[in-house]
Design brief:
mainly beta
């Protein structure tokens, strides 16, 4: 029931260009970064561990490289 508004306009590149998404998770906080721009930040998240899932919103999804690294604060 809780929503966090975006900090600004979308930073996605035009269709057909590769996007770079970084998702930083520290404890109960999450920070999605799109092409180098922080889009929003959520704190006091109730789920702090578990599986990593990737969602496509109604269209085919392709990836070129996925990297998982330990969080550095």
């Amino acid at each position: 029931g809780r929503r966090v508004a975006k900090r600004g306009e979308s930073n996605e590149k035009p269709i057909g260009e590769w996007q770079r998404y970084e998702v930083e998770c520290f404890g109960d906080s999450i920070r999605p970064i799109v092409n180098g721009k922080l889009m929003n930040e959520a704190t006091e998240c109730s789920v702090t561990s578990g599986k990593i899932c990737i969602q496509s919103e109604g269209a085919p999804w392709e990836c070129r490289k996925i990297t998982l690294e330990p969080a550095k604060k």
